[in-house]
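Format notes (please read before filing issues)

Several people have asked whether sequences and structure tokens are stored in separate files. They are not. Every record keeps both together, in the order shown below: the sequence lines, then the token lines. Line labels are part of the format and must not be stripped during preprocessing.
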Amino acid sequence: MTTPEIEELKILLEQDFGKTLSTTTDFEVFSLYIQKKTNERVSPSTLKRLWGYVSDKHKPRIETLDHLSMCLGHKNYAKFIQWLKTSTRYNSSFFAAEQLASNDIQKGCTVEIGWSPNRIVTLSYLGESQYEVVSSANSKMQKGDRFTTGCFIKQQPLYLPFIERNGKRTAPFVAGRNGGLTIINMK
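Then the structure lines:
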């Protein structure tokens, strides 16, 4: 059993450790790492259960979460959660951005998007936030592909839950993973 706070604790611990935990050896070495940093022992098998490396539906003991939080410099798990709630790292916020919203586009208009390195895709707006690829240069998107999005935001990746291709849905797709969209033009 896990919570968003536990998942964030695991992410931060892996960052602190400098490695994703994915093998039995990783958990054994990480257990020693925790003991060295905190003078507290968390067994490799406990870590494996917490990380989902082995099946387990039990809630982790607070003592385990305390030791893991100590590894990151917090007094205990409660203090870690308090830090999460007050840290600006996790605050939602508004931001200024150049964007093109679907509700600002007329059906039949053409939209051009681009991202590094050298990807250019021309889209036809079909209405109701639906787009069809008219042309694609250096992208995995293909002519005839269709997708739904509410807007395009410059310098942000375009995340799509799927692309409709030949009557089938693809896996999720991201355009501009590094650096986001660099071109957004309505023609």
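For reference, the curators noted about this record: The first strand starts at residue 99 and ends at 101. The mean pLDDT is 94.
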